[in-house]
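>> received
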Amino acid sequence: MKTISIIEIFRQMNRKINDRCFESGGNTFRHYLKRIEQNSAVAGVVLDLGAGAVTLASYLPAVSQKSLIIAVDSSIQGLLRNVSRARVVANAERLPFRDSSIHVIAASCVFEHIEQPLQILKECFRVLRRRGELVFYTPHKRSYVAVLARITPMCVHRLVRVLQTGKSFREIEVIPTFYRMNTKAELHSQKGSFDVVSLETHIGAPCYTTFFPPPIHVNFVLFHKIVEKVQWIRESIGEVLIGCFVKPE
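>> returned
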């Protein structure tokens, strides 16, 4: 008979709470995926920047059928677990692609790890075709998760990820964060030659507290719902920024 730990019981209960209190379980990532799907240019080459072990094609099967999705990451360890058809080990500051050769760049949870954002954006601009889009998903700099992340030792980050996901320490890769392009003002000021198509602040269900006892998790749910409903609070300390920059004609 399989035994279930108390943390797993908490996790299951809290996920049910999230499902009841938030649309689609409070998954903000779906807004990012929808933005990629809506892109009229998604019929060519899609660059999944900072892909790691996550296979974008598994989330967007329709896109993967009509596009070539290239997973790019500086870590070979992550790409070894990525099952994308095309995988490239590369630094985002020096992408090994020709000028104007990429239709869409998708960047999920990448911007917060960038120490030199201007150089990365210039490189993305270089490889994108005209009217090509850079679609991104990144934590808001002033969200409580980002604030705590900046003052928390890396070993604690790893422990939290283990408790959150149920994976082993060996499976968890923790990358330093800088948050130098993680507010609307910072994104607008550093966009360079890009045009801004959309830039939205979202907050979903609390995911970092699912391994806590449900009474504690419920308090975070209430906080998230308040932030979700009050626009000025959401814009100030929302959870994530989801946006789309386009390379002009």
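>> The chain has a mean pLDDT of 90.
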